[in-house]
Amino acid sequence: MKLTVNGDTLTLDGTTIADLVTQLNLAGRRLAVEVNRDIVPKSQHGNFTLSDGDVVEIVHAIGGG
Amino acid sequence: MSDLLTIAGNTYSSRLLIGTGKYKDFDETREAIETSGAEIVTVAIRRTNIGQNADEPNLLDFISPDKYTILPNTAGCFSAEDAVRCCKLARELLDGHDLVKLEVLGDQKTLYPNITHTLRAARELIDDGFKVMVYTNDDPIVAKELEDMGCVAVMPLGSLIGSGLGILNPHNIRLILEEANVPIIVDAGVGTASDAALAMEMGCDGVLLNSAVAHAQKPVLMASAMRKAIEAGREAFLAGRMPRKAYASASSPLDGISR
To answer: A23 CB contacts (<8 Å, ≥6 apart)?
Structure first.
């Protein structure tokens, strides 16, 4: 399926948020994920099924003041 | 002497709050922050790089949430909606941690706070259970309104973010302090140690800074200077300065001199 992730279009091989995170080599990282502007808690990443056209945001902490 | 800073029921022995932006690398960030003695450390929330930079190191591996109180900010947000969204992402990222630094900015040139949006976002966040430390201008009426609304700390600017111009209107900061019942933390504008000391001598509860350390020629040494300045300024405030006088007052007795 095709997704928009952080503004870029990509094709996901799996079906869940956990699949997406793994595909992006981000597994085990401290992240927060939104799907279509709703936050999906970490505990649900394994069973939250994404749909074609979903808009996903993945954020992390960076340096800031 | 026990002189702790209390924010939202938690106590801190350091009154320096420090940012993690603009350092050369994460090693320098870690060393400067350790040297500063700060216990509350701000971070920004941004999109994770996907693709070629996926292996880059993670800030929170260097600044551990187990060791520091992480204070996510809403820097870069120019509307109440964006700021609230950012705080919700931060809360998820940090496993339910609900202490945030709210800043809603007005324009790119000044990064001056947009007060109407700040008030709106603060209300929404407080209603949603967040503990809000709020960046604001040095307007005493706005500061009081933010306190009354339930913000856990009010953080007026000394001068523009990243300007290093110091505290441009100490009279307004004093007006805010006179009426405050929550911690008042000068946030933004500190350029060097004396600026931080001045804030503390006036009776501010703390100072939040970033560029003054990160953009110093020697950031780690400046972090040490800031730690001392804030401790010195706090002690001077507690000690109570002598009154200013227009004319001299001798420190040594004037009589008994051999003639």
So the answer is: A12, A13, A14
